[in-house]
Design brief:
About 20% of the residues lie in helices and about 40% in strands. The protein has about 350 residues and is an alpha+beta fold. Strand 13 and strand 14 form a beta hairpin. The longest helix is centred in the N-terminal third of the chain and has 27 residues.
Length: about 350
């Protein structure tokens, strides 16, 4: 009997020790989706597991209310595939994109995409870069540009504040760089013809109200600075305050983005007529069909009778079984493709790879 009693006590102590060890491991490591399933098996709910994760990984400034708000939206589904999704039903492609952001917003070591990230291995200007540069009223370092170049865009964002006032209200900051690289111009040491930088900050709201069957999934108010980082006669820059109103319906989404330029001192203004070509806003639209995304952007200057502006068309399509890398075709026609070309007409077609899509 004494031996059986000791065996029983030993098994109970072992079980208690294993439970404590498992709980310690949950605190020690960041919890993945599979970890949450295991946590549920040991008595922790998905919400509790989510809170444990934030205790381990969230920044010190994150409040308990923000943690509860974030984890309160999470649920888990078990079966052949395990996923973490918001409790609210996702009805459109923009909501799916926002859901991914919400899942990753506070994960450490994570950079979220802002605009699409791509590289065009062949971007051909049918009018020729030399012609457009020669129309300028200053010497351009005597450069002899090829009509075909490489163009790429990298765009990332990060949250500064999440769920302010316990509402669906966030503050984001982002940085976008777009470069125009004369890679095939070996005679001139393959220079970068132009690089545009755009840091920005905005307040983002998710109102979820409808108009004519379209849901206003996200709205924003922000400020951006765009510059080519150059000096002298080649310097180009401007600041603007903008608003954004994003609507969606099933697989179709569009964004209205009006802006107002912040005026500069006339002596320091490198491009006083920039709004004559960029206008006062843009319309962006996209449609997703299976793994294909078709996008459209339009800028027009009403004051000039729509004679100035730009149109950009994009098509992304799958290349392999997994969709983390896509083929990409982009066509641009109009003014303002880059800051150095803001007042010159460009007619350009490019093809390359898309790293992160808009939808």
């Amino acid at each position: 009997m004494r031996c059986s009693f000791h065996v029983c006590v030993w098994f109970k102590m072992k079980k208690h020790f294993l439970n404590m060890l498992f709980s310690f491991c949950l605190l020690l490591f960041a919890i993945t989706k599979e970890d949450i399933v295991l946590a549920q098996a040991s008595g922790l709910s998905a919400q509790e597991a989510c809170i444990v994760k934030f205790i381990r990984t969230a920044p010190d400034k994150l409040t308990l209310g923000e943690v509860r708000a974030r984890c309160g939206e999470m649920t888990i589904e078990t079966g052949s595939e395990k996923s973490i999704e918001p409790k609210r039903q996702l009805t459109g492609v923009v909501e799916e994109r926002l859901s991914v952001d919400e899942t990753n917003i506070l994960k450490p070591f994570t950079l979220m995409s802002h605009r699409n990230n791509y590289i065009l291995f062949a971007a051909h200007n049918f009018l020729g870069w030399e012609e457009t540069q020669n129309n300028n009223d200053f010497e351009h370092d005597g450069a002899d540009f090829d009509n075909t170049e490489v163009q790429f865009q990298l765009s990332i964002k990060a949250p500064l504040a999440v769920d302010l006032f316990d509402q669906r209200l966030d503050i984001f900051t982002a940085y976008t760089v777009r470069s125009f690289w004369q890679l095939y111009n070996s005679d001139n040491s393959s220079p970068f013809r132009e690089t545009n930088h755009e840091p920005e900050i905005w307040l983002q709201m998710r109102p979820d109200w409808e108009i004519f069957g379209f849901k206003n999934t996200v709205s924003a108010l922000g400020m951006s600075h765009q510059s080519n980082g150059r000096g002298g006669d080649l310097s180009r820059s401007w600041n603007r305050i903008y608003a954004g109103f994003g609507f969606e319906r099933n697989n179709f989404a569009f964004l209205l983005r009006p802006w107002i330029r912040i005026q500069e001192n006339s002596q320091d203004d490198d491009n006083p007529d920039i709004t004559d070509y960029y206008g006062h806003g843009e319309l962006w639209a996209a449609y997703k069909y299976k793994d294909h995304t078709f996008s459209f952007m339009s800028r027009n200057n009403i004051e000039s009778g729509f004679s100035r502006g730009a149109v950009e068309l994009g098509w992304s399509f799958p290349l392999f079984r997994y969709n983390f890398l896509k083929g990409y075709v982009q066509y641009f026609s109009g003014y303002g493709e880059s800051l150095i070309d803001y007042n010159r007409y460009v007619n350009r077609l490019g093809i390359g790879l898309l790293l992160t899509d808009v939808l």
